[in-house]
Amino acid sequence: MYTEIDAYIRRLVRESSPERTAWNMERVRQGKPAHWNYIDGCMLNALLTLSDITGEALFADFVETFVDSFVGEDGAIRTYDPSKYNLDDINEGRVLFPLYAKTKNEKYRLAADRLAEQLQHQPRTFEGSFWHKRIYPDQVWLDGIYMAQPFRALYARELGDKDYTDIVQQIETVRARMYDPEKGLYYHGYDASKTIFWADPVTGCSKSFWLRAMGWFATALVDLLEIVDDPGARARLRPIFTELMEGVARYADEETGLYYQVVDQGGRAGNYLETSGSSMMAYAMLKGARLGVLGPEYAQLGRKTFDGILRRYFRAEGEDVELGGICLVAGLGPADDLRRDGSYQYYISEPVVKNDAKGVAPLVMCYTEVIRSRPA
Hints:
Elements (H helix, E strand, L loop, with lengths): L1 H13 L10 H6 L7 H17 L2 H12 L27 H8 L2 H16 L17 E3 H17 L6 H14 E2 L4 E2 L2 E3 L19 H17 L3 H19 L9 E2 L12 E2 H16 L5 H18 E4 L2 E4 L2 E2 L16 H6 L2 E2 L3 H16 L4
Antiparallel strand pairs: 1-4, 2-3, 5-6, 7-8, 9-10
Helix pairs in contact: 3-4, 3-14, 5-6, 7-8, 7-9, 8-10, 9-10, 9-11, 11-12, 11-14
């Protein structure tokens, strides 16, 4: 099966260009032109990691060509609009640091400066947490932690002052406001003003435990534990990560190791085992064990999840290769979109698709951890 995955990844790369990627099905279906976005960023980061592990230039060369089509010599990023204050637009910037280290081309550093400049002015809640986007005032989403904070940590370590205080404080605020200790899980979103239609008027939290949101958060935490080089900051992040992994592990499907779209509602009508969030949880567990933050039993559970995804949703028959079971998209609001209300019925109503980067990239990320542990 791993041979088929290798061929699948290479095929995706060969069939992709900066203007049309073979994995970004949401953009293709909607007829959107190429733009700087988190979805491609996830895949590019995964490909760079794969190149580092395997030594194959194909993946790194593709990433460099892709990024060069967006980043000008002055560091300007084509299609990027900082006035949107969209945390999603920060994630793709993570690839700038390894490209700068490899080439010493100043345009990558200048582009990173532009993204960091957005975060210096990003609107914040009264508690100091970033708004997820300008169109989502006072709202903190788990997704946003992944989109912004690993980039910030890389910038602080590579180009800044190595001060991780604000990063840790924002994550601790998420823990204080969005964690349910009884369930051991995190709500998707939190409105600090407690006024948006989907928010609980007492807690400000959304209604449900969406798998992919928690997957983004788990991935952010484990990546930060690798990036952050300050022992004090790591010591504050570590228990938040281990607590989440302990909580999520309780909900793994016994047969496959996968997790449900709405995590705590396994077996409820309409719920399903979902690929993208399951891949992220497996990645976090495998990487956490590799870093020594989690015990070896989590590596075993992560591997079980990865193998379960392959058995259930990965199909390779000649030239026909597909990865299924991927929730296309989900969110909360905005105020004029009452359908996106954070309810159970909402999350199970979103389309389930094949070969979309929000599932493909996490599987590739998870695969990088699997092959790290394979015998030479």
